[in-house]
Amino acid sequence: MSVELTSTPRQAYNFEMQSGLQLLDRHGNVQKMSTGSAELDSLLDGIQEGSFYLFYSTPENQLILDSLLNRLLVGCILPKSGKKHGFESMAMLFNNFDYYTDKNKHQLLNPEKIAVIAKYAGIEPKIVFKNLYVQTAYNLEHQETIAQEIAENMESNPDIRLIGIRDLTKFIVMNNKASCDTSNRNDDSGTLKKVLSILYQTCVKNKVTMVATGYCNVSSNGIIPKPIGGTYLKHIINVLVNLKPNQNNGYYYTASSNSGGGSAASYKATITKHPYQLTPKSTNIYAKRIGKRQNPMLFIFD
Question: What's the start-to-end Cα distance of the chain, in Å?
Answer without folding.
Answer: 42
